[in-house]
Amino acid sequence: DNLELLERYTKYFHPNIIGLTDEISVLKKVAEKYGVKYKKTLVPDSTLGYVISHSSDIIIVDRDGVLRMTVPHDIDADHLLKQLKLLL
To answer: What integer best gives the mean pLDDT of the chain?
Structure first.
């Protein structure tokens, strides 16, 4: 994906979501580091010809890039706040 398309796509979900893109070799390393699972599936009749399925957890990373917490994407806000306060 290019940055323009990625930004437009992520804004469909929430204006604060930041997408990640780079060379595939870099993305593979990042996915492995943070436990992100993904799979490319060919869909010949679609516009792009493929879809990417991926894990949807919220990944909390500190300033040094250390994984601090992973929570389900559908966690309620109060519970997420409690979890984040544990890190402070």
So the answer is: 91
SS3 content of the chain, % helix, strand, coil (to 5): 35, 20, 45
| Cα distances (Å, whole numbers) of residue 41 to 45, 52, 55, 74, 88 | 12, 6, 14, 25, 40
pLDDT at residue 1 tops 80: no
For residue 6, count CB atoms less than 10 angstroms from its CB and return exposed for 0-12, middle for 13-18, buried for 19 or more: middle
Q: What is the pLDDT of residue 8?
A: 87
Average of per-residue pLDDT across 14-37: 91
User: Alpha-carbon distance 15 to 17, whole Å?
Assistant: 6
In residues, how long is the chain?
A: 88
**Domain definitions of the chain by residue range:** 1-55, 56-88
Give me the pLDDT at residue 41, please: 96
Long-range CB pairs of 71-79, under 8 A, 24+ apart, other chains included: none
